[in-house]
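Hi R.,

Here's the chain you asked about this morning:
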Amino acid sequence: MCINACCSPSLYDTLKTLQKRSLHNVSEQEALKSLTDIGIPILSAVAATVAAIFAWRSSRTAVQALELAKQDHQERHAGLDAYLIDGVSWDSKNGDRIVAFACSVSNSSSAPLSVSRTELNVHAKREGGSDVCVLCRPEPFDLQADWDLKPIAAPINLDARTTESGWIGFRIPLRVLQSMAVDRYEMVFECSSGERASVTQYLLQKISNATR
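And the predicted structure, written out as tokens:
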């Protein structure tokens, strides 16, 4: 804006004042626009950062919840463990071989479980070299070993994180012993849920003076 110097002093002063105010207003608008141009991206970046932090925390919380759920499931279904203490064998009067195993069965989970079945898998080889597995069911016998243990039989009910110890006996028929060579004995415990645990023994102490 150009101001004519020929104007009266009062008019001249008024026009100068208006000019200064106009320039001041323009400067404020430009400054506000510059601040807006700078501030909006900054606010957007801050908002995005805050959103990312909340998303990360939510994701971390979800992962921790999943891990806790997995841990609880594993503790409740950690399940069945079996341990072999000792094993012996002796021959009955008719030539069958009686084998007995001292063992312990543990429930390592936080929920009770029940062993619904026990069996003995006799892994052997025929004369031609082929492998065979003979399944034997437990039978009651007069124990010939000097074990301070009671006989145990399925069902074996185990409370959470408990162990049951005892002995189990099996009969291996004479015809099996005559036609094949025993390689190893595998005793299997099975829960009603289908979970299994097993112990394996290759050599058994033979009690020679047993006559039962």
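Residues 1 and 19 are 7 Å apart (CA to CA).

Let me know if you need anything else.
M.
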